Amino acid sequence: MTARDAAIAELDRAVDGLGAGASAAELFAVVDVLDAQPSLRRSLSDPSASDDQRAGLARRLFGGKLGAESVAVIGEVVKAPWGTGQRMASALERQAVRLALKTAVDNGNLADVVAQLNSLAAAVSSSHELNAALRDRSYPVAAKQELIDRLIAGQALPATRTLASRAVKARRRNFTVTLQSYLEMAAGLLGTKIARVTVARPLDQARIDRLKAALEAQTGTPISIQIEVDPAVIGGLSVAIGDDVIESTVAGRLEQARRQLINL
Hints:
The protein is an alpha+beta fold. The protein folds into three domains: 3-107, no CATH class; 109-190; 192-264, Glutaredoxin. Helices cover 65% and strands 10% of the residues. The protein has helices at residues 3-16, 24-36, 38-44, 51-62, 68-79, 85-107, 110-125, 128-135, 141-152, 158-167, 175-190, 205-219, 250-262; strands at 193-199, 223-229, 236-241, 244-249. α2 runs antiparallel to α6, α4 packs antiparallel against α5 and α7 (110-125) packs parallel to α10. The radius of gyration is 21 Å and the shape is globular. One of its GO terms (molecular function) is proton-transporting ATP synthase activity, rotational mechanism. It comes from Tessaracoccus flavus. One of its GO terms (cellular component) is proton-transporting ATP synthase complex. It is found in: Cell membrane; Membrane. This is ATP synthase subunit delta.
């Protein structure tokens, strides 16, 4: 575990210890303010200030404007040594995502939210046009969010729509990778493992269900399937569960054959 991973785990425990009451919407709003104001990010992450000084500044800035529980979460975030304001903002957004997922747990629909986010990730992954639009830096964020909202409108739960909208901002490299980081947090809350499945063409739901059942029987653990469509694999599929990879793609077999020929 890296020092940053340890800091994140420690922050999770500290925030969990605060109890319920913080608002994901309020924390997301603060993240947007931090993203727009570099000087504020620097002040709240200033390594020359003590932990208590940074937390005190957060209370003065946001106390009375946000709920006390949300201010307490911000205080815990700014006390940690992130090194840069961007990392601090990312840490705060992570807590907002965790709160949105926990709200889904409390509502008894986290599994449905995960299924909807997985379906959205698969739809984006399989569409060159969607991928291109979401990666286009000249395309306004608000327009991208409207695009995603139209895609899932009428069927998505509130938590799904909130998280899909946040993922458009792509704090983790791109939309799909950001969405996958949300799904990893959800898997931790559900006590499941994530199987990342790469295929040449989209799988229908019946095949996904059979694959899920087979992987659960093999691992003895509940599995959440994430589908990525990559025509380069040609055929077959590749499954990654943590560090374990099951390679059964045509491209993989061709590469293995090529290496064997080179070694003759």
